[in-house]
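Quick one: structure tokens for this chain, please?
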Amino acid sequence: MICFDKGKDRFNFRVAGVVLHNNKILLHKFDTDDFWALPGGRVELLESTQDTLIREMEEELNEKVAVEKLLWVVENFFAHDNKNYHELAFYYMMSFSQDCPLLNYEDVFIGTEGGMDLNFQWFDLKDIDDMIIYPTFLKEKVKSLSTNIDHIIHHGD
């Protein structure tokens, strides 16, 4: 994966996917986290960002996704787990096949990331303002998707 540390600073190259279904958005989190995020993962060396998203969804949920459109390129600066992050992230619209069973789940369902359980859940878009979601710009951006690719510079939450 393309991630390296320099002292207390970390560079991270991440890809995430926005899945909307019936006015709901798919988010995930570890049990130890107090926040939700979009599903995705770190890019491997010599791997395209689209291939990363496809691989990550197969690894985490054992499902294939269609990567549809690049939404945002984000320079994200934040602190987490005693590290200062400089993250470059590509956010795509993605979708599951129409017959994917995950589309009908109403409660938390479990995926895996590095041998750890990862909680996935669909949330009504109207309810996300009251949730802790990182990065915070997502709350507004997912409600008004642009036809253009946006470049976002986001500083810590």
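The domain at 3-155 is CATH 3.90.79.10 (Nucleoside Triphosphate Pyrophosphohydrolase).
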